[in-house]
Structure formats: structure tokens, C-alpha cells
Design goal:
It is a single chain. The chain is elongated. The termini are far apart. The protein has one helix and ten strands. With 183 residues, the protein is of the alpha+beta class. It has two domains: 43 residues; 133 residues, ApaG domain (Immunoglobulin-like, Sandwich), CATH 2.60.40.1470. Strands 3, 4, 7, 9 and 10 form a five-stranded antiparallel beta sheet that branches. A three-stranded antiparallel beta sheet has the order 1-2-8, with no helix packed on it.
Amino acid sequence: MTVGEWWWQNARPIGETLKAWAETIAYASGGVFLIYKVLAGYFITDVSLTISSVRAPREQGHDYLSVTASLKKGDKGTIRIHDARVRITQQMSDNVVDEQRMIGIDRLSYTTDQTGRLRIDFSKASKTAPWLSLPPGDETQFVALCDVPNTLPCSIEVVILGCRLWGGRTGQWRASAISFPNR
């Protein structure tokens, strides 16, 4: 038997063996890549939170403190916002001055007028879908107005709770800042 005859006789089994090894290596590589992505945090919901505040005089001994939380969704998955709160603490004594739910996290209900046009109903939240959802690339702002003493600096803490659209672990995003008195 010549080399050419041997080759033609055994080419198919050799090709099938090489194909099986190549598929095994490809599947194993894909599995290793997926494990790497999970360990590297690829499936963690990516959200960035920034806050800003403005302090304005109100009356003797008190200031208004406006807190704005800006939430920006990254490019992986949709999240549902469950809660957003702000806590104001006197910096020197750690006394909680104010704690409240931020405005703008509820998905509102709507009504239909005589022409068939849908109208937002600010008086009630949606009962069928109460969560505000942030799809990839979206951003929004939540606000709160607090009453603070005008003599001391205050620390501002904002906490947002949410989870992926189709379940998963609850995410918590936090940001903090210091507000100094206006003098």
C-alpha cells in the first residue's frame, strides 16, 4: 500500500477525529470564557449614581437642602428601581436630621380622556407595574427637599435599591456628600 492509498483510506477517520478534538477545544474555551466573565463581574448590573445638592436659607435657624440623585444605566440589562432614599445627618454629632423617600421613583398610572388620548395621573402610582425600569443607556434623576439646621455641615447619603428586570440579586447603589452652611 502506497502513502497515497493509505491517505485516501484513512482521511475520513482522521478528519472526524480532528473535528471532534477541535469541537471539544472550542466548547472548553467557551466555558472558560463564560466562567471568566462571571468571575470578572460581567453579569453585575452596571449603574452609576451621582448626587448634587443646593443649600438655600429658609428662616431663622434652618435651611432648605435640595438633593438630586442622577442615575445612569450602563449597557447591560434593565433594572427596576424599588426604593430611593436620602438621609441627612449633622456632621459633628451624627444626629439624623431628616430621612425621606426620593421623589420620582414610582411609575405613575394613567387615564384615557374622551378623545382616546392617554393622560398621566399624578395622584396615584401604577398598581399593575409599580416599578420604574431603566433600560440600557437610560438615565434619570430623583430629588428630595430637606429641612436642615443652618449652623453645622450635614452629610448627605443617597441609597438606591433595584434588581434586574427578570430577577436576580438586589443591587444597592450609594453616594454621599457634605453640605456646608451658607454664611
